[in-house]
Amino acid sequence: MFTKTKRFSVLCFTMCCFCICLFGQIQEASAGYPGKPITILVAFAAGGSVDTTVRALAAGAEEILGQPLVIENKTGGGGSVALAVLKGSKPDGYTLAGATSTAIVRIPQRRKVPYAPLKSFTPIFAYASPPTAVVVKKDSPWKTFEELIEYARKNPGKVKYSTAGSGSFMHLAMEMVKLQEKIKWIHIPYKGTMPAMTALLGGHVDVCSAGPEFVSMSKSSPIRVLATQTKERMDEFPEVPSFPELGYDYYNNTLFSVFAPAGVEPEIVKKLEDAFLRVAQTEKFKKVLKQYGMVIFKIGSKEYKAFLEEAWPKETEVLKKLGLIKKAATNPN
Amino acid sequence: MIENLLGGLAIIFTWQHLLAIVVGSFLGLVVGTIPGLTATMAVALILPMTFDMDFVTSIMLLVGAYKGGIFGGSITAILLNTPGTPASACTVLDGYTMTQRGKGVKALKMAKYASTLADFGSDIVLIAVAAPLASIALRFGPPEISALIIFSLTVVAGVAGKSVLKGLISGAVGLLLATVGLDPIMTTRRLVFSMVELDSGISLIPLLIGLFALSEVFLQLGKISKTKADQFVIKHSSNPEDNRVSWSEFKGCLRTIFRGTVIGTGIGIIPGIGTGIASFISYGQAKRASKKPQEFGEGSIEGIAASESGNSAVVGATFIPLMTMGIPGDIITAVIMGAFLMQGFIPGPLLFEEHAHMIYAIFMGFIICDIVYFVIGSFFMKYAAYLSKVPRSFLFPIVLIFCVVGSYAIGHSIFDVGIMVFFGIVGFFMLRYGFATAPFLIAFILSPIGETAVRQSLLMSGGSLSIFVTRPIALAFLILTLLSVLGLIRSHLKGTAGGEKNNK
Amino acid sequence: MGMKLRNKDIVTSVCIIIGALAVQFFILPNFIEMEESYDLASLSPAFFPKLATWIVAALGVLLLCFTLLQLKKGNIQEKGQLNHRELRRVYVAFAFVVGYIFLMKLMGFLVATIFFLGALFFLQGIRQPIKIATASLIVTFGVYFLFLYVMQVHFPKGLFFE
Q1: I want to staple B143 with a disulfide (CB 3.0 to 4.6 A). Which of A7, B157, B457, B504 is the partner?
Q2: What residues does A125 pair with on adjacent strands?
Q3: What is the value of ipTM here, to two decimals?
Q4: A258: which strand partners?
Q5: What is the pTM of this model?
Q6: From CA B168, how far away is CA B489, in angstroms rounded?
């Protein structure tokens, strides 16, 4: 079917392609890390708090590292999709992921994930923790958190609260209170804090256990913050007690952070860590975090790894206590 | 209010802002017109550029891209059966048929008129009544949304094509496939078959591109042109009637456009419904009210007017829940909301009080956007003339590549390309065996929203179904649904009886 | 031709019914990862998929009945759109596309697309190798650079090549 000329041209064609591709390979770096652009897989959608803060971090790090940091959004599963992809990538320091500690220490127990939460990754840097709180409408009858608990105790099954989703920290916190105070309130999950807040404003639920958006919404909407689920009182809300103050040994320690696959060389990890640390100290970056009312952290690789290893058994216990799991769905190692 | 409007006008009429509008619309149109690329991509592409810009400029860039992208998507939907967004999927039903009959330009022009008018209309509503409408929207809780979704599902019958029964089956399968992924309430994994990528469900855009565009490409790839004339798929008609919209045609569609505007605006205002459905509901209603319902799906210009007015009106209206409640209507509005937050403008009732002039500047910008893309759109429609010169043997392979690349680019995942191919093949067989694809899409989009809403409602009521009938808005929509179904059954029986009479 | 489509409909509806039942009794129970039992308040995660599948099954039965009824009446249906030769070409196109994806995983975007486009053009009846080669190269690189520089989208690097 093919004449000699046609066969020859197909051969030439193939050779050309081959050469083009080899050319691409040769360009690969040798002059030390980083020699080519770094990709950061962001586990959440563009425009959200995780995405925006990672972009700000990346923008600052670009100047320090001298190579572009390309952002790719890989959403899904609360962060598990991005981490699954990260696990499969080469541990050469050119692929990183921006996610939260939830995908490591809170999600894998509830459903099987294709990575070993404590062994598949090298945590690089954790930079912030989102504040969360219990809020009600301004015209609701409860002025303090204790009043809310009292009411719930007298009216079991009547109080309805909304959260950003089942299994999120905001949900778990409310369930902890339910357990500890022996009250019965009903959880209505929504997709994200904004719809949950809207449900509150529309009167469809009585309480909202809200994510970081509550900080900015408190300035523009008629809501009242009854308690913050943070370790200490928040500067922005000096009269509002924090959960530990109210006697609950449970507060939000979710960390927004950057991960690399396991097996990245320690020098590369150090370089990244240093770069991110420097960015985290700049005013520009702090401003972005303040926008979301985030609590600023600067936790390096080793410290963060230790934190995660400690957190795993603790969170597993909590999930078991709340009756959400019988045993962890994924093996941490 | 007038003072706010004038203040807004003053702000928007700087060369910087006007340039932003033009550039944004242009980019959106370019990206949207390329088959396989979506308005979402256009907006996501522009977002990083806006980080260092001032508020009004960045928002105008994004909104321009949004509106341009939607319209661009309609262009490629009409000419190549490749919807750019779920919003344009409905336009495909009549648009592509018209193109195949040489009336592509007429379809494009009607799309342009309908889109611009509807966009304009919903922008006016946005300006005039954003805040009070928002408080009505707040009353839409899970039971109301459930009822609305159930009502919207009746639209499926209207787009089922020849066999309503098969269309219903399509829809039911769509309902089922939408459950793939993590359950919205309990986050239980469903039907994921160990493919972690499916945790967030089957990606909508690859499914859309596969089901609508790729299936048609497969069909066309099977054909080889035997004659020179056959080479050109997009027929260019020399009949001037086919290349313009006559005044009488336009007048005839005015009511449809108005209805589409109202429906689109209504849907956009309700938080959490999403924008993809507006065009279908407008289409379904237009078909019901039309004097020539049998033409719908066969190249009816009313169908185009209905679909386009629906999908454009929803764009402006979706900013109402965005700005007053911070609830985005779809991914694109979510990205734009991110831009708002980043610049320090927090959605909520206070947004209007504290930053009135900026907000009204943006509203004025919306109106200017409409004008701009009306003008630029005409240039893009000339591109139709060029497309008709590309012979089919080159055209469809190239379109296929764009579909592949477009699906990949959404989530940087080859898995998504696989989804697209899978649904391309499925879609091909659906077409071959007479199962309409639009009902599938509608059910697929509505199912997660509906399931979530129903289950949330039941949680709220403690398991009692009464919540759906004790709340007035929910009850109203349920009654509407009942009436709608009864009406459908009646017209179907009448139609069959009439048909039988004719056969005798 | 008319009867053929009717037969097709019967086969289709039977397949649908079988498929729906298979999903209902085999797939759903095994592929929904539920542990605990749920109180009725919020409906189990399995409820909705089950409901949808029952609807499909019921509609499948309806379709079967309707088709049989129409068959008795002897109604004529329209022809399918493609003849045999064309259908074969479509199946070849399917194979090409699936092959393309695997090729892309192995070889990366550039090489895979060049070959894929070439194959498609060939399928479409273009026979001059120059035309095929130039068109494939131009489109592939055009798309590549358009997406790389304008859209900042990086394409998959295969196992072996860029």
Answers
A1: B457
A2: A258
A3: 0.86
A4: A98, A125
A5: 0.86
A6: 13
Stated as kind and residue range, the H or E segment containing A331 is none
A133-246: CATH number: 3.40.190.10
CA count, 13 A, side-chain hemisphere, A300:
11
Crossing angle between the packed helical segments B164-177 and B438-461, to the nearest 10 degrees: 50
- pLDDT digits 0-9 by tens, B159-210: 777 788 888 999 999 999 999 988 888 778 888 887 877 888 898 889 988 9
Q: Closest-CA residue in chain B for C52? A: B176
Give the model confidence (pLDDT) of C15-42 as tens digits: 888 888 888 887 777 777 765 555 555 5
Residue where the block lists tokens 């592929």:
C31
Partner A, chain B 174-233, Cβ-Cβ below 8 Å: 182, 184-189, 196-197, 199-200
Query: Three-class SS of residue A226?
Result: strand
C82–B223 CB contact, under 8 Å: yes
Cβ pairs B/C, distance under 8 A: 157
B335 with A46: Cβ contact below 8 A: yes
Residue A70's Cβ-count burial label (10 Å; 0-12, 13-18, 19+) is middle
List of chain A residues whose C-beta atoms are within 8 Å of the C-beta of residue C41: 186
- In contact, C150 and C98? CB cutoff 8 Å: no
Domain carrying residue B135:
2-503
> What tokens appear for C23 in the block?
């999903």
Q: Calculate how close chain C gets to A25, using CA atoms only, in Å.
A: 7
Domains in chain A: boundaries = 38-130+254-321, 133-246
Dihedral Cα B72, B78, B80, B81, nearest 10 deg? 110
Q: Please give the radius of gyration of chain C, using alpha carbons only, rounded to the nearest integer.
A: 24
Q: Which among C114, C115, C133 is the nearest to A9, CB-wise?
A: C133
- Partners of residue C118 in chain B, C-beta under 8 Å: none
A213 touches chain B (CB under 8 A): yes
Residue B502 is predicted with a pLDDT of 44
The reply to whether residue C154 touches residue A72, judged by beta carbons under 8 angstroms, is yes
Structure tokens at B462: 């403690």
Closest CA to B118 of B304, B361, B380: B304
Low-confidence stretches of chain A (pLDDT < 70) are 1-31
Please state the domain count of chain B: 1
Asked if residues A107 and A249 have their Cβ atoms less than 8 Å apart, the reply is: no
**How confident is the model at residue C82, as a pLDDT?**
64
What is the rounded distance in angstroms from the CA atom of residue B309 to the CA atom of residue B320? 18
CA distances from B130 to A107, B216, B258, B335 (A): 39, 41, 19, 20
Percentage above 70 pLDDT, chain B: 93
Question: Which of B91, B81, B482, B88 has its CA nearest to residue B286?
Answer: B91
- CB within 8 A of B182, min separation 6: which ones? A77, B188, B189, B190, B199, B200, B201
CATH topology of domain A38-130+254-321: D-Maltodextrin-Binding Protein; domain 2 (3.40.190)
Q: Is B414 helix (H, G, I), strand (E, B) or coil?
A: helix
Residue in chain B lying closest to C103 (CA): B414
**Subunit contact B452:A157, Cβ cutoff 8 A:** no
Q: DSSP characters for B36-99?
A: T--HHHHHHHHGGGGGGS-HHHHHHHHHHHHHHHHHHHHHHHHHHS--SSGGGHHHHHHHHHHH
CA B425 to chain centre: 23
Measure in Å the smallest separation between the Cα of B232 and chain C Cα atoms. Answer: 13
CA distance B110 to B385: 17
Q: How wide is the angle at C-alpha B86 spanned by C-alphas B80 and B88, nearest 5°?
A: 45
- If you average pLDDT over residues C2-24, what whole number do you get? 74
Q: How far apart are CA A156 and CA A158, in angstroms?
A: 6
